Amino acid sequence: MPHWQYGKASDRCAHDAISPIGSILYSEFHNQFGPMITYEVPDKRFTNTGLFEQIASYIIPKPELMARQVTITSGNFRVVGYPIQIENNERKKYERNSFMFNLCFVFNIDAEVRPYEPVIKKLGDYLRTVEVETAFLSNEASKATLPVLMTKMLTDLNGLGRCSVEINLSNTLFLKVVPPDRGAGPVVHDYDVPVLLSDSSHGGLVGDLTTRQVVPLIDGVKNVHQISEEVDADPDLVKSCIQNLMFYAIVRVVPAFNTANVHRVTPGLQRFVCDPLLQQECIRTVARDSNDLPSLRDLMMLFGDMQIGVTVKSLLSRHSNIASKIDERKLCDFGVIHGFIRRVYKYPLYTRYNQATAKSATAIRMFNGTFHTDEIQQKLDLTVKDLDERIEQDQLICVCWK
């Protein structure tokens, strides 16, 4: 039985509209024979067509197409994969200095494959991690278990739309096909800060290798890039993990907190005004001391004064009698998560920006009005103080707030 179970009939109906997977194949680059199909379930459904040789160079492609979604139409089939290349590393040396593989889903030519693309990417990224850490695919004994795992994936994804696959005793992979009417998943950036909304053990999500590493580091302070560095994982894999947790409403991402941040209220504040339960939740969440709770009036005064030009620091100074009761980071996070307020970002603009500036090796190349300060700090490894000083000291830099 798969770990995931659908809770709503509407989910099952949505899955019924998704095209089924015809077969799953695992291909790798053989040191003597080049690209080849090592395993396929059901056995040889696509292999026996003789079409593989025509598309082999796309299944195991050149380096520039590695770690990219590939969809190939051949004969009456559509093959979707995510090829991976792993270079020699401290744990493993390969005969040709690298290891290349691709686990692909094969569909009928008229199938709608978009719902499966995130699943295939997650599979590729996950297998890369397991190979680097345990040599799962390059070891013949462990690789021989792939057909059983692939069969379970095929059966559960076709029948239920989700499944759990136990790679070994310490690694379990969770997969879910998202119906096309759900829309694209949320975008997660390196500078975003994930915040836990509920128990991360719900639904067995912590069985996922990356999730087990990432969840303990989600503290509402570290951003995605910092978390990926701490777990020594590919940032894209960590982003995929965060997106998965967001899909199940276990995590939300918020802007990095700083007292120099600026927020403004939104029409969503009306919901806060009309919802006594939400008001009490906010009071309990943002209070520094459970024995000295802020009043609803205190919170409304703080939220109401959030506007362009007012930093968190100046807001607290203006309401110093309230500030001692409030955890300002939790206040801002709660407001953003529930839609009462939104962060107003600062976009530096160099007024003499030109082609030469764009090629500059300095921070000025990003002062073109399209990058906000959070993104610039992350990309250039600058502190808030360093970047603010740079902006303030240069009279040719103006700031747009939006």
Notes on the protein architecture:
- With about 400 residues, this protein is α+β, with helices and mostly antiparallel strands.
- The protein contains 17 helices and 14 strands.
- The strands form five sheets. Strands 1, 2, 3, 4, 5 and 6 form a six-stranded antiparallel sheet that branches. It has a two-stranded antiparallel sheet with strand order 7-8.
- Helix 7 crosses helix 8.
- The longest helix has 18 residues, at about 115-135.
- Residues about 1-15 have low confidence and may be disordered.
Descriptors for this entry?
402 residues; alpha+beta; 14 strands; 37% helix; elongated; disordered N terminus
Q: What's the arrangement of secondary structure elements?
A:
Layout: H1 9-16, E1 23-30, E2 34-41, H2 52-59, E3 70-74, E4 77-81, E5 84-87, E6 98-108, H3 117-134, H4 140-143, H5 146-159, E7 162-168, E8 171-176, E9 193-196, H6 209-214, H7 224-231, H8 235-247, E10 251-254, E11 262-265, H9 269-274, H10 276-286, H11 296-304, H12 312-318, H13 320-323, H14 328-337, E12 341-344, E13 346-350, H15 355-358, H16 373-380, H17 384-393, E14 397-401
Antiparallel strand pairs: 1-2, 1-6, 3-4, 4-6, 5-6, 7-8, 9-10, 11-12, 13-14
